[in-house]
Batch of 2 targets.
Target 1
Amino acid sequence: MINSQTRVTPGEPASFEDAALFHGHVCPGLAFGYRVARRALEECRKGRAEDEELVAVVENDACGIDAIQVVTGCTVGKGNLILHDFGKSVYTFFLRPSGRGVRIAIQQFSTDTLDPGLPALSTKVRDGEATPDEEAEMLRRTRGVVDTLLRIPDDELLDVTQTTVTIPEPARLFTTATCASCGETVAESRARIRDGKIVCIPCAGSYGRGWGKE
Ligand SMILES: [Zn+2]
Ligand SMILES: [Zn+2]
């Protein structure tokens, strides 16, 4: 893996449909992520230096992250999307090397108010208790909620603050070690020591309760 290069070049960003295709379905979470990503691009393109590279730090691992990957080009695989599983709807985007960026938090917003009957219908579909007609209705109404979310003004949906972040080390190639327990290779940066031997995290974890955990 060579380090990512996602430049914030002007041009037409990916559409919501592109994000839905990648994600596999249309859902409110994806719409929120799409809105965040579009705003992030807008903010980060302002007065950027030529060779700045975009990095995303996301604080949840939910549906919206897929829209962020498609629209911003920041991906887990490239190492320019850093995922903190904090369960928060907060997203920070910054440019490397300047560190100039923006923090975007989704405002408290209940999609239930857009279609109060939809959650019950969705549950019915998820539990396999819906008729084909009800399932079609659920998809249609979900699309309605999503269309609304895609149209709401930014200031009713997002809290945006300018920020400058301390740059984390870029993703790099780590040498690998061999786990003394299972015999599989493991990135040296993720290896653990058990009884003086190099082991992988799953093998270290099986050693005992709470042992070897980060
Ligand atoms: Zn989803
Ligand atoms: Zn192992």
Target 2
Amino acid sequence: MAIKGKIESILRHCPPLFRIGSRIYHAMNFGFKSLSAGAPGAIKEAFRLAEELHSGGPIGDYYEFGLYKGYTFFEAYHTAKKLGLRDTRFYGFDSFQGLPEVEDADKSDGRFFEGQFACTRKQVEKNLSRHGVDFKKVQLIEGFYEDILDEQLKKDLGARAAGVVMLDCDLYSSTNTALVWLEGLINDKTIVIFDDWYSFTEGKELGQQRALKEFLQRNTHLRFKPVIEYERNGKMFLVSKKS
Ligand SMILES: C[S@@+](CC[C@H](N)C(=O)[O-])C[C@H]1O[C@@H](n2cnc3c(N)ncnc32)[C@H](O)[C@@H]1O
């Protein structure tokens, strides 16, 4: 992982080379695993904590933004099943065409590009089915967030409170769109995982940190308490209501 990081930071100085390198790396990487080393562990911890906070009762639903091959989604499903969380439903949101056009501040360090992390819906469904996911409690919602996340979708899904939210969609724009849609679903005791918290080296005014800052400016009744940080760029929060 350290070598991969070093090669990546060198190639980032030459965006066309970085894109080619990234495409080759992902095309050769056939395994069913997460792109993020620490994400599976963070998901396990999120569900364990949710179960504890809800004293064994229903914890709410799971919302994941950014599936790629579906591994983190599978991990959430599998963990909840092991814990006996029968009430939880699982929603996965992805374009299944990779990242949208990367614009404005999201362009800043050249790490992300349009079409990156593309994996077809058919392949994701195959991966999940092969690993024992029963689609009765699972729904995959296809499309770019900017086009699909609206109030009608909430009604169509019968969206309920979020128990665990996984935001693994890299960009400020994608995370912001997801967080705007999640307003009202994120509440007291929701656990929110930002897999790209430190993806932008310049910090707070970019990426997921900026998206959360703006969410909290709109939702002044909520507090996000850091729970853990994990490899490579992730951070998990517990939401509570201000008294
Ligand atoms: C880094 S990958 C997800 C990795 C996955 N959770 C894992 O651990 O293997 C990011 C995903 O976010 C999706 N994505 C990002 N922005 C999006 C947007 N605005 N609309 C739809 N999908 C988006 C991409 O298609 C891609 O599948």
